Amino acid sequence: MPTASAFVTEHTRLRITPFVPEVRLHLADEAIELWERTEVSAGERQPPPFWAFAWAGGQALARYVLDRPELVAGRRVFDLAAGSGLVAIAAGLAGAAAVTANEIDPYAIAAITVNAAANGVAVTTVLGDELAGDAAGAEVVLAGDVFYSKPMTDRVVPFLARAHARGALVLVGDPGRAYVPESGFTTMAQYDVPVSKALEDADLKRTAVLTPAQPAGQSFSR
Hints:
CATH superfamily: Vaccinia Virus protein VP39
Mean pLDDT: 93
CATH class: Alpha Beta
Shape: globular
Number of domains: 1
Helix content: 25-40%
Strand content: 25-35%
CATH topology: Rossmann fold
């Protein structure tokens, strides 16, 4: 059985990210077939291969960070639900002192590792569910496309609130997913992000970069 890293490189192509041309990622063309292949390779059920695509929220957040490197330069960064590692890589390119990318999918961890190497940046990966914590030690917490389901949102919002309450800068990229909170966040920027029509049923997604509405160091809720 191939390693997860070998699987990633075999079933994707290294390409320039549409909205973030500074970053190259190993990306796939089709989701369902790839998902089936991950399950065959692993010999068990696997989560969807979110790691193989440049989702709108991650692209917008990566663009925002690269255009404002002072937000992360010299700081410790935590990228939640990192997927391909796009946002983590952008933070590294923008001069972060240390970048940690968290995922629950071993294939995503492999993708982050090979993508970071392709872009010449150092990213530490953490495999596992970190949502009970607050990204302790990170001065900046980044999250792209995390409001896609109610169970995920119900856990992510308290996680972000705890990170914000202890003083971390929290930034979220979201293209208007079904469960994005209706309150508690301020829009910092908006972009029209190119996406795969096969995945999003659109060529462009209007995507916001959000931050907690409360002053830093204070908690917030939905």
